[in-house]
Amino acid sequence: MNLELLRELSVPAESKILLLVIDGLGGLPNESGRSELEQAHIQRLDRLAQESLCGLTVPVGVGVTPGSGPGHLALFGYDPEKYTVGRGVLEALGIDFDLQSTDLAARGNFCTVDTDGKITDRRAGRIETKHSAPLCDRLSSIKLPGVQVFVEPVKDHRFLLVLRGEGLSDQVTDADPQRVGAKPMLSRALSPEAEPTAKLINDWVAQAQKLLRNEHPANMLTLRGIAKHPPMPSLPEICKFRAAAIAAYPMYRGLAKLVGMDVLKTGATFADEIATLKAHWDSYDFFFIHFKRADAAGEDGDFQEKVAALEEIDTHIDDLHELQADVFMVAGDHSTPAVVAGHSWHPVPFLFHAKNFNPGDTTQGFNEKACAVGSLGTFPAKEVLSLAMAYAGRLTKYGA
């Protein structure tokens, strides 16, 4: 359903919708022949799946590998092909940076390169923020002609670069090959007007390289998601509900803020997130709560760590289910199979539990194979929200 139709059909109600996003949820079999979900001991999710409707979601399109931004926007009801946003903007919003309309923001990664300048670790060992923050301070000393430069730590190996000035263009390419064994790339202009901006970015990276070359493990950096703040319709206004987001990682707070959700302050653990959810349960109609660990393990290619992450989230399922949301959904923004060590295009397992309309499925568990034969079938992730609103009594009839 498109957002304008959703706006037309949505009606206020007393019902509550809870969306749990397990980042990087989907996986693929390793040499055992079973995926991470199939190997994990997730008896609570398996039991809930038997009481729910299940299927597989396609975040963007068949065969398209999505970033986290498009994957989440789809789950929030936005067509990810129509509504695009750069990762830099999300990082800026996530750390409450005062991003202005003319600013250009980029997501940065500290990385490790060898003596030939080739990337050996895209995340510099996932260095902690206490180590990356002093590097950001050092990089803040870099000056560029005609613009202000801001460098802010985000979390661990991630940082934010913002250029502020007149005439900046977001029609430039990333400076991140997003793979090990390649050298960090130069940013290229996609239009003649963007040539000065690409030169500024490349000049900044060259100066940063000199400042970092004797560091270890963060002796280089990459930039991606170079963008300006896009206009975005407000989800609470469209759906006529009060929406809240609970996420420990800045980028996901940024996504929620971008679409108009209230971002609730929370702690670093998922237990902290649940405590925040319970404390605010009576104040909102729609909750988005985020679990990151599974995606990080998948990106690191650590199959058993992803299994452990899935087993961790399973221990919290009863706490979430006991809140008795009218609609409780367990979804993923994309698949991150450990055997791929990155995002992939594979459809994502999806679980849908409605308190008052619960025919149940023949699904025997919560994994890729079981969800593939669920009654919801394989469908676009952007339809998740309208399905939830229908079961929550928040959509009126279409047409006469």
List keywords for this structure.
13 strands; 2 domains; Alpha-Beta Plaits; 15 helices; 400 residues; single chain; Alkaline Phosphatase, subunit A; 19% strand; alpha/beta
Task: Describe it.
With 400 residues, the protein is α/β, with parallel strands linked by helices. The protein has two domains: 3-82 and 233-391, Alkaline Phosphatase, subunit A, CATH 3.40.720.10; 90-227, Alpha-Beta Plaits (2-Layer Sandwich). Helix content is 31%, strand content 19%. It is built from 15 helices and 13 strands. The chain has helices spanning 3-9, 36-39, 43-50, 68-75, 87-94, 129-139, 195-212, 235-239, 250-258, 270-279, 293-299, 303-314, 317-321, 368-372, 384-391, and strands at 17-22, 53-58, 104-113, 119-121, 148-155, 158-164, 220-227, 243-246, 262-263, 286-291, 327-331, 348-354, 377-380. Strands 9-8-10-1-11-12-2-13 form an eight-stranded mixed beta sheet, with helices on both faces. Strands 3, 4, 5, 6 and 7 form a five-stranded antiparallel beta sheet that branches. Strand 5 (148-155) and strand 6 form a beta hairpin. Helix 11 packs antiparallel against helix 12. The longest helix is centred in the middle third of the chain and has 18 residues, at 195-212. It is globular. The two termini are 18 Å apart. The model has no long low-confidence stretch (mean pLDDT 96).
Structure in a nutshell:
This protein is of the alpha/beta class and 400 residues long.
Query: Which word captures the global form?
Result: globular
Count up the domains. Answer: 2
Integer-rounded radius of gyration: 21 Å
At the first level of CATH, the class of the largest domain is: Alpha Beta
SS field, number of helical segments: 15
Bin the strand percentage. Answer: 15-25%
Could you say which structural class the secondary elements and strand pairing correspond to?
Answer: alpha/beta
CATH architecture of the largest domain: 3-Layer(aba) Sandwich
What is the CATH topology assignment of the largest domain? Answer: Alkaline Phosphatase, subunit A
Estimate the helix proportion, in percent.
Answer: 25-40%
The low-confidence runs, each spanning 5 or more residues with pLDDT under 50, are none
Tally of DSSP β-strands: 13
- Give the ordered list of helices and strands: HEHHEHHEEHEEHEHEHEHEHHHEEHEH
Overall pLDDT level: 96
Q: What distance separates the N and C termini?
A: 18 Å
| Quaternary structure classification | single chain
